[in-house]
Amino acid sequence: MTAAPIWRSYDERPLTTEANRLMERNPGYRVEIIGGQLLVSPPPDGPHARALTKLMRPFIAVGLDDGPTEVLQGVGVWLPTGTEDYVIPDLAVVDADLDEHYIEDNCYDPVCFRLVVEVTSSNFRADLRTKVAAYAKAKVPVYVIVDREYQRLHVLTDPAADDYGTHRVHAPGEVVALPHSIGAEVTLDVAEVLAAGRPKSAPEQG
Question: Which is nearest to 111 in space by CA: 74, 78, 144, 63?
Answer without folding.
Answer: 78
